[in-house]
UniProtKB/TrEMBL annotation:
InterPro entries, alphabetized: Metalloenz_LuxS/M16, MPP/UQCRC_Complex, Pept_M16_N, Peptidase_M16_C
Cleavable signal peptide: 1-24
Keyword DNA-binding: no
Stored SUPFAM superfamilies: LuxS/MPP-like metallohydrolase
Keywords assigned by UniProt, alphabetized: Signal
Occurrences of domain Peptidase M16 N-terminal (ranges): 48-187
Annotated GO MF terms: metal ion binding
Organism (species): Pedobacter cryophilus
Domain Peptidase M16 C-terminal: 196-372
Stated name of the protein: Insulinase family protein
């Protein structure tokens, strides 16, 4: 039977992953790639993809917020500062050159790492790659550009607390991780950002931006042999540094009893909440099974949480659950919001759904539906060269290999109801739950006290 494919559909068929047909379903495999390590310790991944004449580059450096020390926001400002100019290019020259070529270049910092991503035409690689090299190896952290970015950052921090959902994650991390570096807010806080200067950026760069412990991936239309020579020449001169002495591991002691953090927002008309506790690290061997089970609980629009809290009871416009997995730690939380007057029934309904998951589990029909959903959502995450470049850096950073992709469908299909029950018991917290609420304290404090001893903060106070 002939298949008719419209022109509009063609981009979606240029998949950047190979496809094997198994049991009439598409099983995605990681395309072939090369991995090698330069003498300075920099890990390089090269993956040829010739469907489109472009190249995507991604880099990951161990220079995230966990290394801020007492200067929260330093890693993020340093990552932004990479583009303030280099020894050979001003910020304006970098922007004009990239705009003229239609290329993109972005730098940022996350909780654990600094990241760079770029995309450019194959024909422009010899113009763009030297710029990327300069940005990574020879930033100058221009004072004038820094002052403008610092002012913007302070304004954004002030505006962020107007919406609880913008800052819930920071309050949650501080509540769960305490004084551990995983509590560091990536964007910083006004008191620390105010005191950071370009000397701090330069010192942070010298301490943390090294080739050893870092990786660069390139995916796209190139000859791997020639690209290897080019990348070796460009980045081989990056001077090796000492390994970061700060080895970040999971906090030894997590909360052993239920607690409540109440953040008072005087003008709040609704209560925003997280309910959860300890989660998993990203390289957990049960990661796929956990993803499937969480799909049932709160990982899709038709999840149990959304059905009960939105559809059946009308308590909220949305509810979900998530495992926020990091390299050496992670948390799990149910997230939702509701009108102030319905705070208590919303919390109780969420707890009821969690209890149902643990005590009754899920039937085969529900599990099959979740498995089909997860498999359907999986392929689009690895179609483009940019997505594949990101995948390779994730494999490097989190310590998992291509079997996560190659065996994904098999692992999903192999999840049984009995195994799902084990997953729930092992990873979905039931006891010692932690509760975070942002709302008007005068209206909800007496309500939330029933869930555990309350610590109260004011949202207008500096930090989290």
């Amino acid at each position: 039977m002939k298949k008719i494919v419209s022109i509009m559909m063609l981009p979606f068929l240029l998949l950047a992953v190979s496809i094997n047909i198994t049991n009439a379903q598409e099983a995605f495999k990681v395309p072939a790639y090369q991995k090698f390590i330069l003498k300075n310790g920099l890990t390089i991944y090269l993956m040829e993809q010739h469907e489109v004449p472009t190249i995507s580059l991604a880099a990951v450096i161990p220079a995230g917020a966990i290394y801020d020390g007492q200067k929260n926001g330093l890693a993020a400002l340093t990552a932004d500062g990479l583009q303030y100019g280099t020894k050979s290019y001003t910020k304006s020259e970098i922007e004009k050159q990239l705009d003229f070529l239609g290329a993109s270049l972005n730098t940022s910092a996350s909780k654990e790492s600094a990241n760079l991503s770029a995309k450019f035409a194959k024909v422009d690689q010899d113009k763009v790659l030297p710029i990327i090299k300069e940005v990574l190896l020879h930033p100058v952290f221009n004072q004038q550009e820094f002052d403008k970015e610092k002012a913007r950052g302070l304004q954004e921090l002030e505006r962020a607390k107007e919406s609880p959902r913008n800052v819930m994650g920071n309050y949650w991390d501080k509540f769960i991780y305490g004084e551990h570096p995983y509590a560091n807010p990536t964007s910083g806080k006004p008191s620390t950002i105010t005191n950071i200067n370009t000397s701090d950026l330069k010192a942070f760069y010298q301490s943390n931006y090294h080739p050893n412990g870092s990786a660069i991936t390139l995916v796209g239309d190139f000859n791997a042999k020639l690209m290897k020579e080019k990348i070796t020449k460009l980045f081989g001169e990056w001077k090796k540094g000492s390994e970061n002495s700060m080895k970040i591991t999971m906090p030894e002691a997590l909360p052993t009893k239920s607690r409540v953090l109440l953040v008072n927002k005087e003008d709040a008309r609704e209560t925003t909440m997280y309910i959860g506790g300890k989660g998993i690290s990203r390289n957990n061997p049960d990661y796929v099974a956990i993803e499937v089970v969480n799909t049932v609980l709160g990982g899709r629009f038709t999840s149990w949480l959304n059905d009960e809290l939105r559809v059946n009871s009308g308590l909220t416009y949305g509810a979900n659950s998530r495992f926020a997995a990091l390299k050496n730690a992670g948390t799990f939380y149910v997230s939702t919001f509701t009108a102030t007057k319905t705070t208590e029934p919303t919390v109780d309904k969420a707890l009821e759904v969690l209890k149902k998951l643990r005590e009754k589990g899920m039937d085969e029909e529900t599990l099959t539906s979740a498995k089909n959903y997860v498999k359907g959502q999986f392929p689009p995450d690895y179609e483009t060269s940019s997505q594949l470049a990101s995948l390779l850096t994730q494999m490097f950073w989190y310590g998992f290999d291509e079997s996560y992709i190659n065996n994904f469908q098999v692992n999903v299909d192999g999840l049984t109801s009995a195994k799902a029950k084990e997953i729930v018991a092992k990873y979905f917290p039931a006891d010692n739950l932690q509760f975070l609420f942002i709302g008007k304290s005068a209206d909800i404090k007496s309500i939330v006290e029933k869930y555990g001893p309350v610590t109260e903060k004011q949202i207008k106070t500096d930090g989290y």
